[in-house]
Write a structure and sequence with these properties.
The structure is a single chain. With about 120 residues, the protein is α+β, with helices and mostly antiparallel strands. The protein has a single domain, classed as Zincin-like. The protein is about 55% helix and about 15% strand. Strands 1-3-2 form a three-stranded mixed beta sheet, covered by helices on one side. Strands 4-5 form a two-stranded antiparallel sheet. The protein is globular and about 35 Å long.
Length: about 120
């Protein structure tokens, strides 16, 4: 899957942040990929039992918001441990969002987006 030319630095940041957060929470993340365009219309991200997360950075040529990207990152990371949206998933999702807040992930995402056109 090829990235939009304006999203290379953003994808590198997202991948690096996902790897850090996965290690912090003891999650089995094996790979991060951009979401293929044909799926980006209907979903912002997904993950597999093999530990692969795919994430959408653009929909219809327009970049997703930093909040949407951050929420998708946390959402898919939580699925690496809990497949169903139950209390255990919700607890982990909330913990990931809190850690992202402490790391100022959204501010850093915004800064990366401003570096690219």
């Amino acid at each position: 899957m090829r990235l939009h030319p304006d999203d290379r630095k953003l994808f590198l940041f997202v991948r690096t942040e996902l790897v850090f957060l996965a290690r912090y929470f003891g999650l089995d993340l094996t790979q991060v990929k951009p979401m293929p365009r044909r799926h980006a219309i209907t979903r912002r991200g997904d993950c597999s039992a093999a530990g692969i997360i795919r994430i959408t950075l653009r929909e219809g040529g327009k970049r997703e918001t930093v909040h949407s990207i951050a929420e998708t990152m946390a959402h898919e990371l939580a699925h690496l441990r809990c497949w169903k949206h139950r209390d255990d998933w919700l607890g982990l999702y909330g913990s990931i969002l809190l850690r992202m807040s402490a790391r100022k992930t959204i501010d850093r995402l915004r800064a990366v987006c401003e570096l690219e056109p």
